[in-house]
Amino acid sequence: MAIEVCGGSRVQGSLRVQGSKNAVLPIMAAAVLCQGETVITNCPDITDVHAMSEVIRRIGGQVAYEKNCLVIDSSAVGTGVIEEEKVKEIRASILFLGSLLARFSKVKIHYPGGCSIGSRPIDYHLQGFARMGVETSECGEYICCEAKDGLCGTEVSFPFPSVGATENIILAAVLAKGITKIRNAAREPEIRELCGFLRKMGAKIQGEGTSSIVIQGVARLYPVQWKLGTDRIALLTWSMLTAGCGGDVFLGTDLWFSKAEIEILSAMGCHIWHNSAGVRISQQSVPRPISYLCTRPYPGFPTDGQSLLMAALCKGSGVSLLEEGIFENRFKMIRQLKKMGANIDAVSNRACITGVTRLHAADVEADDLRSGAGLLIAAAMAEGVSRVSGEQFIDRGYEMAEDQMRTLGIRAGRSA
Ligand code: UD1
Predict the structure, then answer these.
(1) Which pLDDT value is given to residue 136?
(2) Closest CA to 155 of 130, 177, 131, 133
(3) Ligand 1 probe mutation, 160, 190, 306, 371, most atoms within 8 A of CB
């Protein structure tokens, strides 16, 4: 199977941007902190959500999904083992470490292995848990974590503002004894959404969205209903598609871009307006180059947007320089872009992209979620019919990407 894209034309139309993948995954881990039924609406229909649901079922919970509504009944959840296949399938399953430790003081999980965008260790997560009174031992390929005297509030300071580690410590701290202070916390919008959800459940949290978060543990949390916000990376994906192909689109969203994103889209030549229903993006020229950009933790330009931006910059006039500041292995897509005629030189974590006048169709292969989205953008910019395989990576984070592209006037479909 592959996604087939007939590229070379401008985009037009309107699209409702899906709910946030990176917000729903920690919220699903948070749902096991209480007993009873959690309802999440505007939940994207993506395989990461279904894989995370399977983990919850394996530890005794019940999960139902219908028409963007996810219902999690965590009443019968017990302390469980999170197996290798699940950790490999969905790395965010490590977030159950925090929530299961909070609920049962004990959890066993397969050690997460390498991953195609970098090594992605979990040392910051484990160091934070250790400060909260968790003892960790290795049992073969598994890590066993146990807080014999329960979790205790403490001060946790991260060497780097890791999103996952910040979420894991928050999940552990909401039911811990006393106060936990997280220093150098990640400031990503998904952290704010997780904290909003936890606060609705009854948690006491202050400071999310800043680098210093304070959590006062409570005795009990309660199930709630929650409407997920827009996926900011999906919003950026369809915006970069417009920036690369040219055209005029309306994207239905409750979200506005970050300053870093606006600066880049504007520098590429896009005009952007917004109202309460969404954003309109118009690109009347070929993409203009970006003299230099380095991806950074929020509020910097997101690493998840780097492949999208790189693809859009392949066409046009001028030279762009991109530096990857978060993950070491995010340039594998370059080999695929070159098959379409892109002119890119990369050394280590820096890539120099010289815009070309035309890209041509090719058979290309994605090997992670965002490179897959980047290749879809490049395929839409390239003349002819391209086949993007590795669609299982794209399905992890996008609700039927080819349908969404068709809504924006691009001929796209799935082929055998
Ligand atoms: C999350 C996002 C991912 C995004 C990334 C950075 C989810 C489900 N995934 O991933 O889409 O690309 O944030 O914005 O929300 N690190 C360590 N030790 C640790 C933890 C992290 O060295 O214990 C390093 C990583 O190798 C990486 C950097 O810190 O270089 C950032 O990783 P982190 O913010 O933790 O990313 P994730 O939470 O895995």
Answers:
(1) 93
(2) 131
(3) 160
Task: Write out the two tokens for 369.
Answer: 């979620």
Tell me if 125 CB under 6 Å of ligand 1.
yes
Flag whether pLDDT at 109 surpasses 70.
yes
Q: How far apart are CA 314 and CA 320, in angstroms?
A: 9
Output the pLDDT for position 87.
80
Joined tokens for residue 87: 């950790």
Whether pTM > 0.85 for this model: the answer is yes
Q: Which of 6, 43, 69, 115 is catalytic?
A: 115
Write the residue with the smallest CA distance to atom 3 of ligand 1.
304
Rounded CA separation 161/176 (Å): 22
Q: Which ligand 1 atom sits nearest the alpha carbon of residue 298?
A: 14
| CA 166 / ligand 1 centre spacing (Å) | 10
pLDDT at position 278 is 97
Q: Which range (87-91, 149-153, 355-359, 388-392) has the least confidence?
A: 87-91
- 34 noted as active-site residue: no
Please report which confidence band the pLDDT of residue 330 belongs to, taking 50, 70 and 90 as the band edges: confident
Q: In 3D, which of 205, 194, 212 has the Cα closest to residue 157?
A: 212
Angle ∠(135,140,142) on CA atoms, nearest 5: 55
Side by side, which strands form the sheet with 62-66? 62-66, 69-73, 37-41, 225-227
Ligand 1 pocket, 122 CB below 6 A? yes
CA–centroid distance, residue 102 to ligand 1 (Å): 22
Q: 121 in ligand 1 pocket by Cβ < 6 Å?
A: yes
The confidence score (pLDDT) of residue 321 equals 98
- What would the pLDDT profile of 332-355 be if each residue is shown by its tens digit? 899 999 999 999 999 999 999 999
